[in-house]
Design goal:
Layout (H helix, E strand, L loop, with lengths): L17 H6 L21 E6 L3 H10 L3 E2 L11 H6 L15 H12 L9 E3 L2 E3 L14 H21 L2 E6 L3 E5 L5 E2 L15 E5 L2 H18 L4 E6 L13 H22 L3 E3 L2 H6 L17 H18 L1 H10 L7 H6 L14
Parallel strand pairs: 1-2, 1-5, 5-9, 9-10
Antiparallel strand pairs: 3-4, 6-7, 6-8
Amino acid sequence: MSEQHPNPYIGLPETAFWKRAVAARNPLEISHLWQPKFPVPRKHKVITAGSCFAQHFSRALVARGYGWLDAEPAPALLSDEQARDFNYGIFSFRTGNIYTARMLRQWLSYAFEGEEPPLEHWEKEGRFYDPLRPGIEPEGFADLAELQASRSAVLAAIRNAVMGADVFVFTMGLTECWRHRTSEFEYAMCPGTLAGRFDPEQHEFVNQSFVGIRRDMLAALKILRQANPKLKVLLTVSPVPLTATASGEHVLTATSHSKSVLRAVAGEVAAEFKHVDYFPSYEIITHPAYRGMFYAPNQRSVVPQGVNHVMESFFACQNEAFPWLARKSKRGGAKQGGGTAAANARAVKCDEEFLDAFG
């Protein structure tokens, strides 16, 4: 008679069962959503880039005394407000939003592999705009030389940030993008929106596939690994819906498609590499279990309470997986959330929102 084995569901933790882990709980008490692969102590240097939501991570880290690395700080002569207007201190380097894995790969290729960015530039009312980051200067650059000098500075900042960091937090935002038909150079925004001129013979819309996004993300990770073998990568997916879509679909279903593909890529890549992890900020904000409580009335903007809950979940999971982190926090007397609500209440800088003007 063969030995009887219990079925594999016996003895699983309550997090494996919907009723006990979700339905029977207050949404704010849903816990253990993440089992982090690696610790993020305060002494580590953390860099952030990506979609709009990545800005909340940097603010929360700074508010809690963590080592967020600003590799391209604002000139001393600028006030805090002016620095923000010129997109300093938003991400770890002054690229503006990096919405796609392809755009991340482009920036890293220019910074580390000697690939030359195209000479293309946009003009508007006598000012010059960088197609890689058209919103970086509120009134554009005075001339092409100033544009090129600024681009060289950001590439140097990317190199310094990546080689000096311990953790890179990248928030994936969009699958939709615009490219040059011949070179396949990806623009930060559709030409003709913020600046430049749209030409259907030169510019094409691409809604990137799972295969393409995964390929670009793997290429980006390879460059990061070669530049800094000790660098850990933490992926997130932005919970912010699309401002507009050029896919022909309703913006609601286009958003669902885009975020689903990004979430799938992030999960697959994190499962494949030990030094890559995925944090479920997307699920915490968007899942029906949270009843939409973390969105503003426009159903797009994430309210400060939602951001704080995401970050408290992040630190709680870190402290549970690595108890020594919590002990060090207590010994050091570091603040836990002090000023975080005020910091996260500031509006994030989101280039995609320029598209709303065309609606």
